[in-house]
Amino acid sequence: MPELPKIFGKIPSVSELLASASDYMPFIPKPAPKYVSESGKPVHGITAEFSKTPVVVRAAEKVRDAGYTRWDVMTPFPIHGMETSMGIKRTILPALAAGAALTGVAGALAMQLYMNNDFEMVVQGKPFLSWEPLTPITFEIGILLTAFTCVFGMMALNGLPRFHHPLFNSERFLSVSDNRFFVCIEASDPKFDPVRTRELLESAGADRIELVEDEN
Amino acid sequence: MSQAPSQAATQDPTTIPIPERPTPRAVLTEAQWQARLDKLAAHPAMRHDNVHLPEGATNKLSGLLLIIGAAALVVTILGAFTFNARHALAAFEVGLFTCIAMSVGAQFLVMIFHSLNAGWTTTSRRQFENVASLLPVCWVMALGVVLIEILGGGVLLTWLDKGLTGDHLLELKSPYLNAGFFVVRFLIYGLVWLGLSQLMFRLSRKQDETGQRGLTRVMRFNSGWGLLVMTLTTAFFAFDFLMALDFRFFSTMWGVYFFASSTLASVSVVVLILAVLRGTGRLTGAVTEEHFHDLGKLILTFTVFWSYIAFSQYFLIWYANIPEETAWYVYRTGEGGYKALFIILAFGHFVAPFCILLFRKVKRTTGLLAFMAAYMIAITVADMIWIVRPMVYAGAHAAENPGLDATWWLDAAGIIGALSIWGFFLVRAVGASPLVPLKDPTLHEALAHKNYV
Question: Does B347 touch chain A if contact means CB atoms closer than 8 Å?
């Protein structure tokens, strides 16, 4: 039996979904922070700063092999092969798009067949329920649903749009759009440990390690 | 704008650090270029036996194809004399137009790759060039068809018949549809196709030997005007030889329809060639699953493109319901099993390959993709059958139709004959030159090509 492609990642739990929804809806209480900084603010995570591409790729491989799941690499430009270095699984989006396309095609056909069923009208002497006029509408609705699913599904899977990100609290982080590379391991990661995570990033050759605080 | 105080002007100019700009990268010197060529030649994928076929390796296959082709053509010619000349010519034309579609499409794609500077295609481009370099062969075979049509006074192209008078549409179209202008146009197609295909092929081969990097720019320049004249000659070729089978019919989309088939078939045949070469242990590391993935995407794209064009053309004609246009579809969805062929094309040329080629696994597995490529060539032949074959027993000739059971051998012989003769030249061309452009400046891009998705 060939191995099926692993396009479905881990399904998020209810508490995880609530935690991400609380970013947008103030009436949803935020979960209690796992770690609190000395100033009493919740800890977002630990960032490591790098100045060379090969070093950050090696660092990403190191973090991946250490088994972290909630972390990211931020770079000023796309680095080819970073997704393998980070161990990112393929996105579920193609499957969602295929589902949307089939829904659109089936829905459009059902709508037109239902509407034409009891309401036969002679248009230009063409036969009733001929397949030709059904095709453009089926095609367009299929495309419409697929395109919407692709765009909005991509945004939802990326957690976009959002008003703010805790990483912007760090002054140093702003140089990510200039000439610096950052690896951030979030405090919500089950493997996160204030001491060992910092040691891991240090051993990966980071120029500078920083603790990033979240808003309250 | 002038009123806004510039911040830089108010500051002390000595405090503003002026970043040191890197000096613009100079053009490589000849020594640096030679060093890059040496580095490329040392690449493991560029071993001599990996990018060359051994001397005479293709003789067996090309000889076999020549024998099959010659035998099939003899059967076709016998069928023409003993049975029905119109039918034999139509069968040969089905095969011939598929070959022309593949060669024309390959020439298009070579020029598109050059004009877009498509680095990933470099290792597979030589096979496109090989397919395109058969345009002279195609033209000579088409010359045979033209001679038969002219000397026979309109065998399938009934408008060449001098005795055909009194048709108002033909009288209106006669400034275009007449034997003299037809021959002139055919000579222009030959000039453009022979000239362009040989020009691009020889430039590429010359670069193999001399390593002149400037030739890439020459090829790119020639691709610009070449694409324009190829587009026009291909469209008018399709008008003259396929659309004019029924001189009453006209469709402004016809050139695009033929173009869609030709690009689809040419990518398919190149995938087949590359898969066979990979199967014999060549091109390891030069053409990988990454390249097959992208070529598979092209097949998927042109499958959708063909369907879009084919349906749009049909849909407008169906709605407008103008007799001279509709008649064309009436022949092709009516008697003689053409309705079944129409449905087979709708599902076999669009629905099935679209659903299969959507899967990444299919495009990245060489065997599966090669199977799909062979299938797409077969379905292109079916498309040509659907276009050409109904005209044999159309209109006044309907009474001559002996039915498919009695004539299938003639169809098969004509199609196999044309395809095999073309295949003979193709196999010889593949064996005659290195399997990749050896000293192309973009070769390193193709060798490192990866799909980052």
Answer: no
Overall domain count for chain B: 1
Partners of A211 in beta bridges:
A46
Structural domain span for residue B337: 60-432
Same domain, A98 and A154: yes
**What domain range includes position A132?**
93-158
Would you say residue B167 lies in a domain? yes
- Token pair of B406, please? 């009695």
How many CB atoms neighbour CB B210 within 10 A?
11
Question: Is B321 an 8 Å CB contact of chain A?
Answer: yes
Q: Two tokens at B16?
A: 């503003």
Q: What is the pTM of this model?
A: 0.87
Q: Are B272 and B420 in contact (CB under 8 A)?
A: no
> Smallest CA–CA separation between A45 and chain B, in Å?
28
Token digits for B50?
């990996």
**How many Cβ contacts (< 8 angstroms) between chains A and B?**
19
Which tens digits make up the pLDDT trace of B346-391? 999 999 999 999 999 999 999 999 999 999 999 999 999 999 998 8
- The closest of B275, B265, B277 to B382, measured between CA atoms, is B265
**Which residues in A lie closer than 8 A to residue B452 (C-beta atoms)?**
80-81, 83
Q: Is residue A202 part of a domain?
A: yes
> What backbone phi and psi angles, to 5 degrees, belong to A71?
-155, 165
The answer to the question of residue B25 being in a domain is no
Q: Calculate the average pLDDT of chain A.
A: 87
CB-CB neighbours of B232 under 10 Å: 14
Q: Are residues A146 and A200 in the same domain?
A: no
How far apart are the CA of B358 and the nearest CA of chain A, in angstroms?
10
Q: Report CA A102 to chain centroid distance, whole Å.
A: 24
Determine which helix (DSSP H) or strand (DSSP E) holds A49, and give its type and residue range.
Answer: strand A43-50
* Residue keyed to tokens 């030739």: B215
Q: Are residues A80 and A34 in the same domain?
A: yes
Domain count of chain A? 2
Distance CA A142, CA A130 (A): 19
B105 in Cβ contact with B263 (< 8 Å): yes
CA B85 from centre of chain:
28
- Strands of the sheet containing A181-186, edge to edge, are A71-74, A181-186, A43-50, A208-213
Q: In chain B, which residues have their Cβ closer than 8 Å to the Cβ of A135? A: 311, 315
Q: Residue B127 falls within a domain, yes or no?
A: yes
A75 lies in a domain?
yes
